[in-house]
Design goal:
alpha+beta; 10 helices; 2 domains; disordered N terminus
Length: about 325
């Protein structure tokens, strides 16, 4: 078969489909493969594509005012858990936020909660708010991994078990010292996260328990339950899923969501010093001010991907974080509960 070409010559169409040189014909080639072969600099990894999809989901649900909520306990919003593992011989950890003080004493066998362990108290606080009970129940331990969009392989299960052990073994001290008129008001509480737990870890794919009625049961300590019910701090569940593997950014996002909501106008928060942001978040390893300031700027850029209207910015002299009143969670989704 022959046809005229635009240039007046002839093009030949053989009976067999055309194959590019040195490449078998597998049928239609997907766009990702073409990009990787022809323009590798434009191709993105599956992990990066997953992140892009999650960012789009966060933005879409925010635009539609259809955000899914999870809840945090106030002590861990005002003062962050360690971002990274502490030395084995360090069993006391302290953070300060103005008049608030958070102290965590770790169990000698398990140490102090850190990193992605912060997902566990968020999960527990969310179930407490949803079920309105100290005794919270869920079908399987993997429910927490599913809730926060985490994979369910053996490595993740082992990490989850270790996180529950560190959380269960930790003793929390949370207190405030404040002055009202001429009287000093002191409120302090020492508590564990929960007093009893029966958790079943299943590594099989079907996720079924040994019987249809089997449930995981955690009895929260009365102190932790009362704190959560008195001050449930809502945040965007899809954003938490996206940031779960970056605990420092997750801490800052939840803290900013709360801080901007409570702000009455533009406020300047010191970044350094005894009352600075550096002593509130769990990122304890940035001793040099310049390094922490650079990291803070990077974290804010990431947060604006999920919260474009976030008003927080570093002041021109680099010593303060400027915040203003803003709402990260639309009120119709339960912000004022």
């Amino acid at each position: 078969m022959r046809a005229n070409s635009p240039g007046g010559g002839a093009l030949s169409y053989p009976n067999q489909p055309f194959n590019p040189p040195n490449r078998p014909n597998p049928g239609f080639e997907d766009v990702d493969s073409i990009l990787k072969r022809t323009h590798p600099e434009l191709a993105i990894s599956r992990h990066r594509q997953n992140q892009v999809d999650r960012i789009e989901l966060v933005q879409l649900k925010r635009e539609k005012r259809n955000q899914s909520l999870c809840f945090s306990a106030r002590p861990f919003v005002l003062c962050g858990l360690p971002v990274r593992s502490l030395p084995d011989d360090q069993l006391l950890y302290e953070r300060k936020n103005g008049s608030f003080v958070l102290q965590i004493t770790g169990h000698p066998d398990y140490g102090i909660p850190f990193g992605q362990d912060r997902i566990v108290p968020i999960f527990l606080a969310t179930l407490a708010v949803q079920q309105q009970s100290r005794t919270i129940k869920f079908k399987s331990a993997s429910a927490m991994l599913e809730t926060f969009g985490m994979s369910k392989g053996g490595k993740e299960y082992r990490r989850l078990i270790a996180a529950f052990e560190r959380i269960f073994g930790a003793t929390i001290f949370f207190g405030t010292d404040s002055l009202k008129s001429t009287a000093k008001v002191v409120h302090r509480a020492r508590f564990n996260f929960f007093s009893e737990a029966r958790i079943w870890y299943n590594r099989t794919s079907d996720e079924r328990g040994p019987s249809d009625g089997f449930e995981n049961v955690i009895v929260l300590s009365d102190e932790f339950f009362q704190e959560v019910m008195a001050h449930p701090i809502p945040t965007d569940l899809e954003a938490v899923k996206l940031l779960a593997s970056a605990p420092a950014i997750l801490d800052l996002f939840i803290w900013l969501s709360y801080r901007c909501f409570t702000a009455r106008g533009k406020e300047l928060i010191p970044i350094f010093g005894a009352f600075g942001l550096i002593n509130q978040l769990g990122a304890v390893e940035y001793a040099r001010p310049r390094r922490f300031r650079e990291k803070l700027q990077q974290w804010l850029k990431t947060i604006r991907l999920v919260w474009p209207e976030c008003p927080a910015e570093i002041s021109s002299d680099g010593n303060y974080l400027s915040v203003n009143h803003s709402i990260a969670i639309h009120p119709s989704n339960g912000l004022n509960r």
